[in-house]
Amino acid sequence: MSNSPRVVAPDPNDAAHLWHITTPEVTIDADYRASTRGLDIDAVGFVHLARGDQLCHVVTTFFADCDEVRLWAVPATTPGITQEDVVLDPATGRVDTFPHLYTALAPDMIVGSCSWHRGGAHWNWPGQGPEKTPSSFFDSFS
Known about the structure:
It contains three helices and eleven strands. It is mainly beta. 12% of the residues lie in helices and 33% in strands. It is globular and about 40 Å long.
């Protein structure tokens, strides 16, 4: 990754990127060992990622107490990451699978990032104002 990743906006239909979600104060550097919020890769065994169509569910479920999160874009086909490194694991109690990275997330894997802010009761998609996600999108996560 360059000194400053370019800003990219998530798109629920974007299959080219996977997303790692953190709180805004987190910096991904050479010593980054987090799996997800409050847990490290040594304890969990992998780094949590999400597809674009899973971002709303992950943020509203696991970051519900936050007013802002940071989204880190990782290309779905990152050089140096093998198919064995990214596994689609089933989520507990859900039909859906989530991408898990079975190696540490290195800064050079990140191609972009952006902040996602809550606007009242709703999250505002980066660069798009109030969230306009169809209700059917949320229905798939109930």
